[in-house]
Design goal:
The protein is α/β, with parallel strands linked by helices. The chain has 14 helices and 15 strands. It folds into 2 domains: 159 residues, Aspartate Aminotransferase, domain 1; 247 residues, Type I PLP-dependent aspartate aminotransferase-like (Major domain) (Aspartate Aminotransferase, domain 2, 3-Layer(aba) Sandwich), CATH 3.40.640.10. The protein is 39% helix and 14% strand. A hairpin with a 6-residue loop joins strand 14 and strand 15. Helix 4 packs antiparallel against helix 11 and helix 12 runs parallel beside helix 14.
Length: 422
C-alpha cells in the first residue's frame, strides 16, 4: 500500500504525469478536416486535431459520452444563431433522410428521439404484451433498458427472464434459444453490454426470433458510430440508439428504428403534433383519424432542429472518414488495449470476452488485490477519465476508446495501471 501511495503521489504531484500522458497546452484546430491521403497512426494523429477535447487528461470514457469534433460544434452554433436570428426553427426532415441513409433504413422507419432510453420506453410500452408474456433480458442491462421493462412488468404483469451472458457469441445464442418458451414474446437485449462490452450476435438472434414470431427490441446505445451499422442487414425488428456516444454528436439526440411492416404493431402511446393523420376536436364527437404512416408517429412535439443539424454534421464527419475504417480503428485500439491488459492478468481479472467478435469498443476488468473504486479514483487522479461499473454487481473498471485515442495513450494507461496495482 505504501509503495502504491508513493507512486500515486509522484504522479499527482506533477513529476510523472506530464511525461506519461504527453500533456501539452496546444490549442485545437478550429476545423474538422479529414485528410485521407495520410495513413496509419499519422492519419489518426492528424484527425485528433479535429477535436477540442482537452489534452490535460486522457479521455477513455466514450461509452458514456463521445466528445464532438469541431465541425459538429460549429454546425450546431450556426444553426442556433440562424434560428434565433430569424425566429424560424423549421423541422428536421432533411436531417432525418441523411440519418436514415447512414443506418441503412428508410426515413419512414426512423423516429428521432432524445436518447436511447426514450426509444426503449417506446418499445417496452408499445409492444402488444399481456400478463404472463415473457421478455428475455440480460443481467447486465443499463438502467435505461432495465427499468422500462421492469416498470411494465410491475404495472402489466409481464414476466422478465434474465440470463448471465457467456463468453462467446455461439454460447450466447444457445442460451437465448434455451430460454425461449411458447410464452416468449420479446428478446430485449443490448447490442453491446454497457458493463463488459460484450457484443451479441444480433443478426443470428433476429433470424432465430423471426422463426418463432418473437419480437427483437434491441438496446443499441453502443451501436451507431462504432459498427459499420446497417440495420436492415442486422435484421432486428426495433433498434433504439443515440447520437451522443460513438456518433460524436450532441447530447439530447437519439433514434428509434421501427421495421416498416411493424408500425401498426408498435403502439404509439405518447403523441402530439405531426404524429397524426388528421384530427378535429371541434366536432361532436371529436375526431382522431389515426397515425401517420411512418415512424414519425413516435417523435411527437417540438424538437431541437439545431441538435439534429449537429447530428447530421457528425454523420458527415463519419462518412468522410468511412464507416468501415472507423470500425476497423475502434477494433484495432480495443485489441491493442486487450492484449496490453493480458500482461497484467496476475493482478486483474478481464471480464470482457477474449473472442474478437464478442467485443468492439469497451473493455472491463476487475483488480484482484484492491477495490475497483480505489483503483478507479486513483486512475482519475492520474489523469485518466474511465468509468467505474457497479451495475449488475460487475464492480469493475471500464475503458472505452474511440478514434481520437492513440496507442501511446493506451501504453501510458497500462504503465500507470501497472504501477497502481504494484
Amino acid at each position: 500500500m505504501k509503495s502504491r501511495r508513493s507512486f500515486l503521489q509522484k504522479l499527482t504531484a506533477g513529476i510523472a504525469v506530464p511525461t506519461l500522458l504527453g500533456i501539452n497546452s496546444a490549442s485545437a484546430s478550429t476545423t474538422s478536416k479529414v485528410d485521407n491521403s495520410l495513413e496509419g497512426e499519422e492519419f489518426w494523429a492528424e484527425l485528433r486535431k479535429s477535436f477540442p477535447l482537452t489534452k490535460d487528461r486522457v479521455y477513455m470514457n466514450n461509452g458514456t459520452f463521445g466528445p464532438a469534433p469541431n465541425s459538429v460544434l460549429e454546425a450546431l452554433n450556426r444553426s442556433l444563431t440562424k434560428i434565433n436570428t430569424s425566429g424560424e426553427y423549421g423541422n428536421s426532415d432533411q436531417e432525418r433522410v441523411k440519418l436514415a441513409d447512414y443506418l441503412g433504413i428508410k426515413p419512414t422507419e426512423l423516429s428521432l428521439t432524445h436518447n436511447t432510453t426514450e426509444g426503449i420506453n417506446i418499445m417496452a410500452w408499445g409492444l402488444p404484451l399481456q400478463a404472463g408474456d415473457e421478455v428475455i433480458l440480460t443481467k447486465h442491462e443499463h438502467a435505461g433498458s432495465g427499468l422500462p421493462w421492469l416498470n411494465r412488468a410491475k404495472l402489466h404483469g409481464i414476466v422478465l427472464k434474465t440470463f448471465e451472458p457467456s463468453d462467446t457469441q455461439e454460447k450466447n445464442l444457445e442460451i437465448i434459444k434455451n430460454l425461449v418458451t411458447s410464452k416468449t414474446k420479446v428478446i430485449g437485449i443490448p447490442h453491446v453490454t454497457c458493463t463488459t462490452g460484450l457484443v451479441f450476435p444480433i443478426k443470428e438472434i433476429s433470424e432465430f426470433a423471426r422463426g418463432k414470431n418473437i419480437y427483437t427490441a434491441i438496446d443499441g446505445a453502443h451501436g451507431a458510430g462504432s459498427f459499420d451499422l446497417n440495420l436492415k442487414e442486422l435484421g432486428c425488428d426495433f433498434y433504439a440508439g443515440c447520437y451522443h456516444k460513438w456518433m460524436l454528436g450532441p447530447s439530447g439526440t437519439g433514434f428509434l428504428y421501427v421495421k416498416e411492416e411493424l408500425l401498426d404493431e408498435l403502439q404509439a402511446i405518447q403523441i402530439g403534433g405531426h404524429t397524426d393523420s388528421g384530427w378535429d376536436i371541434t366536432l361532436n364527437p371529436p375526431v382522431f383519424n389515426g397515425y401517420v404512416e411512418s415512424a414519425h408517429r413516435y417523435d411527437y412535439g417540438t424538437q431541437s432542429k439545431s441538435l439534429f443539424v449537429g447530428v447530421a454534421a457528425a454523420t458527415d464527419f463519419h462518412l468522410k472518414i468511412g464507416k468501415a475504417k472507423i470500425e476497423s480503428r475502434i477494433r484495432e485500439l480495443n485489441e491493442y488495449l486487450y492484449q496490453g491488459l493480458t500482461g497484467l492478468k496476475d493482478k486483474i481479472e478481464i471480464l470482457t470476452p477474449s473472442e474478437p467478435q464478442s467485443r468492439i469498443s469497451l473493455i472491463s476488468f476487475r483488480p484482484k488485490n484492491m477495490g475497483y473504486q480505489e483503483l478507479g479514483n486513483s486512475l482519475a487522479k492520474a489523469g485518466f477519465r474511465i468509468r467505474q461499473v457497479p451495475e449488475g454487481g460487475v464492480n469493475a473498471i471500464r475503458v472505452s476508446t474511440h478514434i481520437y485515442n492513440s496507442k501511446e495513450e493506451i501504453d501510458n494507461f497500462l504503465i500507470v495501471t501497472k504501477g497502481l496495482l504494484a
